[in-house]
Design the sequence.
C-alpha cells in the first residue's frame, strides 16, 4: 500500500458485470488506463463457487482490485438489482480478502455496449456473451476514466 490507500497497490483491475445467468468480466491494462473485454462466466447453482471463480480470474490476471458494476436506477436509487450487487460485492470481498472490491455505477453500460457493437458491425447473432463482457469493459473504463482507482473513491 502507498500512503494507506489500498487502491494504489500495483496490479490490474478486474471489472465485473453481474447478471442472473452470466457474469461479464473485463480487465485493465497494467497501468490501469484501458479496459478490455475478457470473458463471460455462466452462473452455476453455487453462488460461492461463482465468487471463487471471479477471485481466481482476478488473481490469474494479476488484478488486485475488483470493480463490481452497481446497476442503479436512472434516478440514481438502489433497486433490487443494486442491492443484490452490493451483497455480491461484499461476498466476493469476504471470499477473497487479498483483493480490494469496490462498486461503480453501471447505468446504461449494456446499452452503450450494444451501440458500440452495432457501430463496429458485430451482429446480434454473437449473442449476449459478447454484450456482457463488453458491458463489463464499458463499466470498468468508466471507473478508470473517473480516476476512481487513483483517488480513493469507489
Sequence:
Amino acid at each position: 500500500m502507498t500512503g494507506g490507500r489500498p487502491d494504489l497497490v500495483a496490479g490490474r483491475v478486474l471489472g465485473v458485470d453481474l447478471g442472473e445467468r452470466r457474469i461479464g468480466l473485463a480487465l485493465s491494462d497494467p497501468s490501469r488506463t484501458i479496459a478490455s473485454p475478457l470473458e463471460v462466466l455462466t452462473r452455476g447453482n453455487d453462488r460461492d463457487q461463482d465468487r471463487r471463480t471471479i477471485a481466481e480470474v482476478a488473481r490469474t490476471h494479476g488484478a488486485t482490485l475488483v470493480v463490481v458494476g452497481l446497476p442503479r436506477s436512472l434516478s440514481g436509487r438502489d433497486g433490487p438489482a443494486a442491492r443484490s450487487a452490493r451483497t455480491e460485492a461484499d461476498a466476493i470481498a469476504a471470499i477473497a480478502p487479498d483483493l480490494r472490491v469496490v462498486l461503480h455505477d453501471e447505468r446504461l453500460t449494456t446499452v452503450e455496449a450494444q451501440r458500440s457493437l452495432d457501430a463496429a458491425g458485430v451482429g446480434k447473432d454473437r449473442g449476449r456473451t459478447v454484450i456482457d463482457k463488453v458491458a463489463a469493459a464499458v463499466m470498468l473504463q468508466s471507473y478508470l476514466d473517473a480516476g476512481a482507482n487513483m483517488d480513493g473513491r469507489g
